Every structure is written in structure tokens, then in C-alpha cells.
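Reading a protein record of the kind used here takes only a little practice. An example makes this concrete, so a full record is given next.
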Amino acid sequence: MKVIAHQNFERRSNNAFRAPEFVARDWIGCCRGFIAGCLLLLPFCLQAQAPPRIPAGNLMQLQVAQPEVDTSGPVTATASFDPRMAVVGQKVFYRVTVNAAESSIQFPSKIPAPEAMNVTFLANGQITRLMANKFLPSTTFIYEIHITTNGYFSIPEYSIQVNGQAVEVPAASLNVLPKGNSPPPEPRQLTVEISSTNVYLGEPIRVRVMLPTKPGSPIDALREVELNNTGLMVNKTSLRQSIETLNIDGQLRQSFVYEITVTPIATGSIDLTAQGFSSGRDLVGPITISGPVNLTSSLPGYVLLVSDPLKINVRPLPMENGLPGFTGAIGKFIAEKPRLSAAHVHVGELLHLSYGFHGDALLTRFVPPEPPHDRDWQIFEDKPAGTGFTLIPLTDEARETPAIPFCSFDPETGKYLDLTIPSLPVTVIGESLPTQLSLPDETKNKVKPARLSAFATKPGRATDSLKPLQLRGWFIALQLLPALIFLALWRWDRHRRFLEAHPDIVRRRQANRALRREKALLQKAVAAADAKAFARHAVKAMQVACAPHFPAHPEALVCGEVLSQLDDAGQSPENGKTVRKLFEVADSRFSPTPRAPIDLPRLHQSVQQVLQKLEEKL
């Protein structure tokens, strides 16, 4: 019993002693398990989180999937007169509306109208409506009808082509009353106003397209407004939409105003017309509203409206009395006083020149003056354009900035206005350039002055142009030089291989050159009356002329081999005797007995004939 009790006591004592170690191990194991569980659950937590909310913006709208254009539905067409009842001479519009894209419709050039109707095509346009998260296209064709007699008129049913399929346009009727009856209300039209009808080419003008409402009717907005003329350039950035109360025909009526800036780009008489869809409460873009406005709560009915043509006379800019620096600025401009960033500047230091122009004309297409060229200044245009220039003095002899020519055209007076940026006085310092640069001296831990090298006493190499070498004409020829050298080497190697394959040509050329030398020496011997030299050179000339035919060395040929190369005419008794005589004289140096002298003048003529025969065979 004592032993058992002692053992139990030791166990309890050991457990009590090791308890803190066990507790630490358990705490570390719990932490490890918690971290492992978090890591396992982290992907599920990340997937369960909602995506971050990004504020809507213009760039975000481009990334959002837009509703598709629905072209799967059945295509139908409607036709109607506006108004449906008219009097003789009243203007009437005929509209055909098709629920399809404009590009897919093939409309006939002439509709089957009665002869009493004078039908004139005015315009066509397309608009899309958002219905059930889809865009539904709608295209309208509008005609103007003039009738000179009363009666009941009808345009019968006819077919048009939409995506290659026939679509029936229903018939439409019009009741025309004789004159004297009370006319029905005039059809709705757009009204166009411009700031000036007599303008210059490139002069910006404001165009106001207005849609007045009927008394007591809600306001109608305009969409898809277009100006039908190719001689005008429209500036979409100057668009302004508003709802105003205007005096129309002596009545104050609320009107939707679409105002934009256009620029004529063609001279002559221009007919300006406007078209657009009345859209009811379907307002697009920022709109300025003045006073109370009555907006309809029903769905909008999109109706294509047009305006009467408005003539604009566009005149070209006068060429006389022009001023330098004209960049197309038309209107009344006032130049602000230019300012320099500093009054004192060193050579090579940047100097900023700021300027400004303001006036009643639009500055959206304002083209600033171009920097001039000056030998004392280097001038750059600041960014954005039209804010100023950066000038760098190149010499200390400059006393003022260069004048920058600029002018504008005043359409009211028809004259050019001088807006030149004047010269401004400036002091350019050249002698007080920094001549010492402080460099650390690591050995003495002092600042050791480092002087600039002295200026060159003589000018360097001059050049006649600042154009880069790679843009000059001879540089292109220099690039072709390796190809020409390669071509020449190829031709030379080809010629060398040809001569290797035809060695007889080389021997004949060498024989011709040697024959010319011997003939020259032959003439000298004749002039000196040296018979031995004459015979020696004559024989050598014959041997040279006959050597390529064997082939053999010229000195190895004998008299018989020379005679074998002469033809029948060349082997005459006299020529054969001459050849033998000359060989005998030439070989006489090996004979102990002297030979008789030769008749040099007679042999000279015979030798020439023999050499001529031999030379012809080379």
C-alpha cells in the first residue's frame, strides 16, 4: 500500500509540475486551428461578398451592355395626311412611317399620287424608341402636297421593299374644300431663325430651330434635329436646348428651342432647312426652362417635322487689304496686353510670353497665331494652344521679343483688324553666365571650383542646312551604293567565269594588243630605214597574229605555219615570197654567211597586206 500511494503521489506531482507546458501547447494548437479554419473559409467569404458599388459615369455607361435593336418583329407601314382636310392652296404634308431601320428600306422615287396633286419630297429621318428593354426603330418619309382644285383625293395602296420583302403602304385620303371655306389649322412646322442671312465664308452663325406649342397644349421636345445642307459645318459642342416663351404671330407661346452654331464652308446661295421629331416629354440632354412648363404625362408620339427653307448668302473673304497672320478668325476680337514672365533673362533660359483674345465671336474654333522665325530667338507654342509662347534667347544682342503677326476679319465692316502681339523690351544677359560650378572634393572635404572651358576663338564647321542627313537627297543614293557595288562585283565575276570557259577570247585579245605594239615598232623601223629591225618586227607581228590559232607561243611558229593561216587570196606568189624572204632575213642571225639586202619600200607594202589578212582572222 505504501508503494502504490508513493507512485500515485509522484504522478500527481509530475502532472502538477508539467501543467503550464500542457496549457501553452493547447493554446498554440487552438491558434493554429483557428488560423487554418480562417484560411479555408476565406475563399467562401470572398465569393459571398457583394461587388463594390461603382459610381455611374460617362465611362461606366460605355461599359454597360446597351439594349439591342429589335428587328425581329413584323414590319408595318402607316400613311396619313396632315391636316386631313384642307382648302385649295393650303400646304399639306403626307407622311409614311415604317417600323424599320432607314438603311433597310427601299422607298420608290415616285409615289402613285393623283395628277391633281403636286407631290414634292422633303425629308426622311429615323428615331429609336426604348420599349421593353429593346430599341424599336422607326423611319418617316415626308412629302409636301399642293392641290389647286377641290375634291376628294386619295393615294392608293402601294408596296415598298424592306429587307428584300414587300410591305404594303395603306391608302390615305384627303378632302380638299374650295376657297372661301374656313381653313383648318395649319400643320405643325419647325421655325428656323439665324443670326445673319448675309455672311462670309467661315463666319460662325447661330441657328435657332423652334417648335412652338398650340395654345393650351403641353410642350413638345425635339429629338434627332438635323440641318439639311452640305454647305454648313455644324458644331455639336455649342448645342443649347431651352424652353422659352416667345412672341409668335402676336401670341405668347411656349416653344422648344434647339440652338446650335454652324459655319458655312461653301460660297453662294444656301437653302437651309431643319427637321426633327417631336418627342413630347422625352427630353434628352440638359435643357434650360424659363417659367412654368406643361409636360404631358402620356407616351410621346414621334412625328417628323420640317421647316420652310431659309436662304443664306455666303460671300468669300476679300483678298484685298489683307494683313499677315490671318488664321481664319472671323468676328470682333480684342487683344489683351501681353505679359512676360521675367524682364531679365540669360542666354538659353526659358521665357514665357502669355497673351489673350476675347470678343463676341465664338472661340471654339479659334486658331492662335503661328510663332514667327527669328535668328535671335527660338520660339515654341505652349500647350494648350492659344495660351502663350515659350521664347529662348540665342544671343545677348536681343533687346526685345519679336512681334507675332496676327489679324482677324470683322464681318460688319468687311475689313481685317490688326491684332499683332507687339514686341516687348527684355534684357538678355550673356556676360554674367555662371562661370563656376561647385564640386565636392572628397580628399580635402572642401568645395573645389570647377571652371568652364574657354569659348572657341574660331567658328566650327559650317553647314548650309539644318536638314538631317537622312532627309537629304544624296543620302538615298548613298544607301543604294552597296547594292551597286554588289551588282558590279556580280557582273565582274560573271565576266571572269565566261573568260575562264572561253580562253580563246583572252588569247585573241592579247594577240591584238601585241600586234598593235609590233605594228607601231614596224612603222618606226620603216621611218628609220632599218631593214633588220623591219624584218624582225614584221616576222614577230606575223607570229603574234597566228599564235592563237594553234595555240602556241608566237616565237615557236615557223614560216610554213604562218603561210597555212593565209587564205587563197593571201597566199599569192608575191605574199608567199615576202613571208619567206622576211623569215630568211630574221633567221640570218643564226647563219655565218650574210644575206643580200632587202628592198624595204617594196616589202613594206606587201607586209601590210599580209598583216591585214592575218588580223581579219583574229
Remarks:
- The radius of gyration is 54 Å.
- Residues 2-48 form the longest helix (47 residues).
